[in-house]
Backbone:
């Protein structure tokens, strides 16, 4: 059934922005590219656009396949397609690769047009705020003034939240999933270990490894292995691997337990396809996001300008972005009398649950998205 | 949504206590419904009184139903209190026929009074004569209002109208209004004996 409801073969596009782009850090990009994909058809009054914001390692290829025989579909294919919870018969869905990414948008591994060499360490640090501003450029490029919805999980949820703060009049609905209003010290600590693994890799070369013809594979691999531990719950790992051995105990440091095999596989796979400089920047964007900071930590004040209607979702076994953190967002929205619903989905998969096709989770998304009306509204006045 | 006929038809299926609750809720006010089920009461209050409503619900299926019905719903367990809600942030907080199933009964009533300017509590009156009859006959009461056997009931804190009056007195809770209903009819004579459903409008003294 999933297969039947696939959006089919899709192709990425590139939007080139030949203008100086100011970043939160104060640095600028002289120009930039954003790679994106779209699914479904933009309606006549352009009121059915839904933006998908990706998380740490995501990208623009959210649904469908790039060619027949493509082994894997896009990363949120179980959600998006004709007849799926985010129904492409109704919505025009946009996925993009964020600035600083490594899938075609301007980033450390892309060519700096001024030097004609990869940006490397010279590519600035980008933030959630910068991403949302660049996404607004992409909407302008597509002629879309208002999103029917912005949807994101984890770091993507932070972008969805930021959309409602930065562009309150441009978002009708925000779906903030398995996210947080900022990272806890423990959460940032995982990021720091991941970055240290990369930065201390002898082949990192201060971030300019491209010109040395090497990549800091070992560091990136360890960073990803660490990440995967935190994306799963103890129970999920127990259920998936337990103490299962591949063979028998050999009194060695080779792969003996199934869990080790999984982590090494995930680490190797990731290190072979992802850019270490991008990983550093994505984790930094996570660390820095804290919309309440300029309001003395008062998230309610930070969200006081938000006009969107909200659906906030969390997963019971997610300890990296725990339900308690989502409840902070809900509390702030309630303080502002925002229109908000919050569901705490019982799921065993930990943080990864937001990408899984859990029946109840998808039923909530389907119901919520199905209720979204397809007409742009003057946001700011009364809207029930 | 503003079609009167439709509202009337809809009202027919609403529980008998909804009409009284609607009389206690102000037009265009802000209401928190604890244990909101599928959002039926909030839907009724939204459509009839343009109330800005939020529901609290623990059950997955009910949360989904609320989302379907476009009712703001916050999934949480009332036993954990109302820490996600600010002091006096609602005009009215409703706990409709849920009090008797709460473990932390005292806590939730005090939490409601903290969060709401006014509180509406309704519960099945255990002192209703039909219940007393069944006890006299040596059995635990089973009725339309209390449709469970002793071994599978979620009701752990059943009380009578007199019990609740004493509770309010001891907790310095002001009873603004009390209505008692049996089979949709108001009961004023011997309410603790003849009333099956008790409805209270409360505030902090």
Residues:
């Amino acid at each position: 059934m999933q297969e039947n409801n696939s959006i089919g073969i899709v192709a990425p596009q590139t939007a080139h922005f030949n203008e100086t782009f100011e970043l939160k850090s104060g640095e600028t990009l002289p120009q930039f590219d954003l790679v994106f994909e779209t699914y479904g058809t933009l309606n006549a009054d352009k009121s059915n656009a839904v933006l998908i914001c990706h998380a740490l390692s995501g990208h623009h290829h959210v649904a469908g396949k790039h060619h027949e025989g493509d082994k894997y579909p896009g990363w949120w294919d179980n959600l998006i397609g004709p007849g799926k919870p985010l129904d492409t018969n109704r919505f025009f869905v946009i996925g993009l690769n964020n600035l600083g990414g490594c899938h075609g948008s301007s980033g450390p591994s892309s060519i700096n047009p001024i030097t004609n060499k990869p940006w490397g360490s010279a590519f600035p640090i980008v933030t959630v705020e910068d991403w949302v501003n660049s996404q607004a450029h992409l909407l302008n490029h597509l002629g879309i003034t208002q999103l029917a919805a912005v949807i994101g999980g984890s770091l993507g949820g932070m972008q969805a939240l930021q959309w409602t703060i930065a562009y309150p009049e441009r978002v009708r609905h925000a779906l903030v999933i398995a996210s947080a209003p900022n990272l806890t010290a423990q959460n940032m600590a995982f990021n720091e270990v991941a970055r240290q693994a990369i930065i201390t890799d002898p082949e990192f070369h201060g971030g300019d490894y491209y010109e040395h013809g090497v990549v800091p594979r070992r560091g990136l691999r360890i960073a990803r292995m660490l990440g995967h531990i935190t994306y799963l719950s103890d129970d999920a790992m127990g259920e998936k691997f337990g103490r299962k051995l591949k063979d028998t105990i050999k009194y060695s440091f080779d792969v003996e337990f199934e869990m080790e095999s999984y982590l090494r596989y995930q680490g190797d796979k990731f290190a072979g396809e992802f850019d270490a400089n991008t990983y550093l920047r994505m984790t930094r964007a996570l660390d820095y996001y804290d919309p309440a900071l300029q309001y003395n930590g008062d998230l309610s004040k930070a969200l006081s300008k938000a006009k969107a209607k909200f659906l906030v979702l969390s997963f019971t076994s997610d300890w990296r972005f725990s339900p308690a953190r989502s409840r902070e967002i809900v509390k702030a929205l309630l303080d502002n009398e925002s229109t908000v619903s919050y569901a705490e989905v019982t799921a065993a998969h930990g943080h990864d649950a937001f990408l899984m096709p859990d029946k109840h989770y998808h039923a909530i998304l389907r119901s919520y998205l199905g209720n979204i009306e397809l007409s742009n509204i003057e946001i700011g006045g009364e809207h029930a | 949504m503003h079609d009167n006929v439709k509202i009337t038809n809809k009202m027919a299926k609403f529980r008998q206590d909804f009409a009284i609750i609607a009389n206690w809720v102000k037009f265009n006010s802000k209401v928190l419904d604890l244990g909101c089920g599928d959002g039926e009461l909030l839907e009724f209050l939204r459509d009839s009184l343009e109330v800005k409503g939020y529901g609290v619900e623990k059950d997955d299926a009910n949360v989904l139903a609320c989302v379907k019905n476009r009712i703001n719903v916050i999934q949480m367990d009332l036993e954990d209190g109302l820490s996600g809600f600010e002091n006096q942030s609602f005009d009215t907080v409703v706990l409709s026929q849920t009090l008797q199933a709460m473990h932390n009964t005292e806590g939730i009533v005090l939490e409601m009074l903290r969060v709401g300017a006014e509180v509406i509590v309704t519960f099945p009156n255990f002192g209703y004569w039909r219940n007393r009859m069944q006890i006299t006959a040596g059995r635990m009461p089973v009725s339309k209002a209390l449709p469970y056997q002793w071994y599978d009931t979620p009701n752990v804190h059943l009380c009578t109208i007199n019990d609740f009056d004493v509770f309010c007195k001891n907790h310095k809770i002001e009873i603004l209004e009390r209505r008692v209903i049996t089979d949709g009819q108001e009961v004023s004579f011997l309410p603790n004996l003849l009333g099956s459903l008790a409805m209270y409008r409360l505030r902090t003294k």
Chain A touches chain B through 21 residues (CB under 8 Å). Residues 148 and 372 of chain A are 7 Å apart (CA to CA).
